[in-house]
Amino acid sequence: MAQRAERAPSIDSQSAEGSAPKPALRKTSISDASKKKKSKKSSDEVMNKVYSNLLSSVFGQERELSQPELDELSEAFKLFDYDQDGYLNYKDLAECMRTMGYMPTEMELLEIIQQIKMRLGGLMDFDDFCELMGPRMMVETADMLGLKELKSSFLQFDTDGDGKISLDEMKEAVKNLLGEKLKKGELEEILKELDLNGDGTVDFDEFVMMLSVR
């Protein structure tokens, strides 16, 4: 009795077997692209948060006076401290404010002078002067990006003053600005984005470029 010949696998069957792994490969590719997209989005979110907090700390109204601002106040205070006793008379305050470029209304001046008379006995020292003029100065400079402000901002990162922001300096500054540590790889991603010349640090020009494009 003749043996029945074994049936050869069909071309369709071979094709199906050969193409079976393809969906898995495609799935992996999509997964990788999705991870990269999420990583980029996360990096952008961190950068935006760092940027907004940086502006707030350097140019916003809820901040400490910078050294250049304190120097300006000190110069104005000394100019009108005629007897050099460390106190400014309330009678000279209006002229002092106008010299600094502030034009208070009569009503505003009356309120200020009344406070000085009642609380300070008609005289104010430099700390009182800063307390009075500081908020006005910060309102005026809020969100202003002049060269002086940019340099002051850069120095918050460049703590050793070598003109470049290293990875360690960036880590410390970002931690202070955000109040938290970044996730693994986020800091390196930020530095890579800012480091245009690829030297592993961020110089002043690259720092200004970051602020300019955001």
From TrEMBL:
A GO term, aspect molecular function: calcium channel regulator activity
Keyword Metal-binding in record: yes
One GO CC annotation: cytoplasm
SUPFAM superfamilies xrefs: EF-hand (SSF47473)
Ranges for region Disordered: 1-44
Pfam families attached to this UniProt entry: EF-hand_7
Keywords: Calcium, Metal-binding, Repeat
Protein origin, superkingdom: Eukaryota
DNA damage as UniProt keyword: no
Residue ranges of domain EF-hand in the record: 68-103, 145-180, 182-214
Cited PANTHER family: CALCIUM-BINDING PROTEIN 1-RELATED (PTHR45917), CALCIUM-BINDING PROTEIN 2-LIKE (PTHR45917:SF8)
Descriptive protein name: EF-hand domain-containing protein
